[in-house]
Amino acid sequence: MRYRVGDHVLDTRKFEVRNGDRLVAAEPQVLSLLFLLIENRDRLVSKDELVETIWDGRAVSDSAISSRIKSARKLLGDDGDAQRLIRTVHGKGFRFVGDVCVEEDANTNDGPQHASEIEALPNRAQSGGRSQKYGLPIAIAAVAAFVLAGMLLLHPWRATQATVAIRPATASPDSEALARDLTAKLGMLSGANEGSPRLVDQAGSQSSDLRFEVDVAPGGRDVTGNLVLLDNRREVLWSRDFRQPRSKLADLKQQLAFAAGKVLNCALDTIAKGAPHPEPQVVKLYLNGCGGFADLNQDNVLEVERTFRNVVNAAPRFQAGWRKLLLVEAAGLNGYLDTSQADLSRARETVAGARKINRALPEISLVESEMAPPTRFSERMRLVEAAVRAAPANADIAVIHAQYLLNVGRSNDAVTEARRSTQEDPLSPLNRQAAVIALGYAGRTAEAEHELREADALWPGASSLREARFLLYLRFADPKEAIRLRQSGLPMPDMSPFVGSFLTARANPTPANVELALRDARAVYAKTPSAISHLTQVLGAFHREDELFPILLNWQYPDKVDQITDVLFRPALRNFRHDPRFMRVAARLGLLQYWQSSGNWPDFCFDSDLPYDCRKVGATVARNT
């Protein structure tokens, strides 16, 4: 069945939405909600029915429902003020009130119907594979039920709702304020994941399954926040101090909330019903690893890896420990480590051990994708997408998938994935930064700025958001704002000195300024080939395509391909991509083979003013390569 709403066509068989020939990126859960409302447009759909159908009756907050309704309206060009299509009946539910034309679709061929059909498609199972109870094909319902079963197998705690309390450890105003803020932030998790833990008030804290106690150490220019997690016997499971200058209280609150969210999810793993419970000492070791994972960086990645390895050595049947160990291995190979033979050997050992426990762990595919040669995009994307399908609610996998999508030119799909990662883990500064950067790649800078404003409301003054703002203006938006941020005296991302001449040339592109930026970029690249990303950006930004093509066509570091693909699909390289010679570069890097074999062509291939046909030129290049 197909429904036409204005310029949009919603196809229940293909589980997609199109606006003309353009496929509209949409989360499966939002599509499910739209189909439910449209198919029942003759009546009001209550919140209870919505929860029962879309969320399978599991506990879900009003904010989660409102978020999906907002996304459904936005997808069709409606909004909460106008309510031209989806009307809210406060306290009762929702009703689809827009004009709908029903189109019977006799064509049962699942293949592409026209050229634009091979545009990059969103993964239908990647974010919320819920069983569909309102007329979707049986096959889709079966797949959704299978995904749901997998989620309950991997996260059995979600079948029963644990209770969590947050209390100030002392009666000091600072501790009470920090506890209130943490309560508000952790409350967001209830709106992110169905069946997530329920926060209880002070009266219920004595009988809660888990309890956080927050304290603030007095004195000095720095503020130290102490966070302790207790079990239902009030034994300490985990504790950590967080220190920040008084001028960075937002960073302190962000650290506390993000670490608390990660550790809380890990604690729920250890009390899951139907799963083996580790010994208390293993639980504490596991939670310490999760606390380190919340602040994973180049300096601590090996330490966190060793912690989780000790966990699985002590409790080999504890699958949650294996999943975290695999995630750390994937993160290390993805950027924190140099991917030496020792790193690859250790990752292979981890994968082999995890397979003995459960071959279906989605993180196994994630590590395998990182171990695959960088130019084998088809293999790597297949493995990452398998991980996404197996764990559609895993924000850590979703944000890595978003980066992969950026590296193959599917920027709009990357935006969808990065935003989904923030919905699944709204406390993660990394995921919010990923959403901002993905919007920049897609040329949607106004939306990126809006994303930053929303994040600022949540974490006012946080340094991670300042860094995201700087990167947005450095690469994609008004360079004068990046210069202002750079001159503000506040810490910025660790960028090389040549950024200054690049920004100056972008803000004031006189011949002298441009030549200085080009000279700096060439000089750094001559000394450090890994600076290829900056050189590519500079040459693209100042229209030196004739210089850039021979450099990339003769690139001699196939293991560093990601340093090029990280830049190729930014707006500054638009003219470079619009030159048919770009397909030769794509072939050399392994991108063309992926596009041809998967049918997921990059966004730029659908630019209305592209002077060549990607498929035709790509086919010619492939024959001659």
- Total of helices: 27
What's the gyration radius in Å? 25 Å
Strand line-up in the sheet with most strands? 4-3-2-1-8
Query: What's the number of extended β-strand segments?
Result: 13
Strand portion: 5-15%
- Distance N terminus to C terminus? 44 Å
Major sheet size, sense and barrel closure: 5 strands, antiparallel
Mass-distribution shape = globular
Q: Roughly how much helix do the residues carry, as a percent range? A: 40-55%
Determine the mean pLDDT: 83
Q: What's the structural domain tally?
A: 4
How would you characterize the overall build of this protein?
This protein is α+β, with helices and mostly antiparallel strands and 625 residues long. The protein folds into four domains: 2-154, Winged helix-like DNA-binding domain superfamily/Winged helix DNA-binding domain (Arc Repressor Mutant, subunit A, Orthogonal Bundle); 169-382, no CATH class; 383-495, Serine Threonine Protein Phosphatase 5, Tetratricopeptide repeat (Alpha Horseshoe), CATH 1.25.40; 496-624, no CATH class. Helix content is 54%, strand content 10%. It is built from 27 helices and 13 strands. The protein has helices at 28-39, 47-54, 62-75, 138-154, 173-192, 249-270, 280-293, 301-314, 319-336, 341-357, 362-371, 377-390, 395-407, 411-424, 429-441, 445-458, 463-475, 479-486, 499-507, 511-527, 532-541, 545-553, 562-568, 574-577, 582-589, 591-598, 614-624; strands at residues 2-5, 8-11, 16-19, 22-24, 45-46, 86-89, 93-96, 101-103, 163-168, 198-200, 210-217, 222-230, 236-245. The chain has a five-stranded antiparallel beta sheet, covered by helices on one side. Strands 10-9-11-12-13 form a five-stranded mixed beta sheet. A three-stranded antiparallel beta sheet has the order 5-7-6. β2 (8-11) and β3 form a beta hairpin. α14 (411-424) packs antiparallel against α15 (429-441) and α15 runs antiparallel to α16 (445-458). The longest helix has 22 residues, at 249-270. The two termini are 44 Å apart. Mean pLDDT is 83; it is low at 105-159.
